[in-house]
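The instructor's notes for this session suggest beginning with a concrete chain rather than abstract definitions. Hand out the sequence below and ask the class to guess, before any prediction is shown, which regions might be ordered.
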Amino acid sequence: MIKSVLFTLLLTLGAAYGLFHFKLQLGLFIIPIFMMLVMLVTFTLYRLLEPKHQANDQ
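After discussion, reveal the predicted structure:
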């Protein structure tokens, strides 16, 4: 699980670099793409930090 989270964060960093490198060409698309990146990182970190539930805890 940790590898998938780290991979997602590295992929997001690469996308953020591309986003800010090509921001003049993207124009108005930069705002929704930036919001999607923020949501992706937020939910990925939340998934990493949420406590693990075991089957016996019901």
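Then share the key points. The chain has three helices and no strands. The chain has a mean pLDDT of 82.
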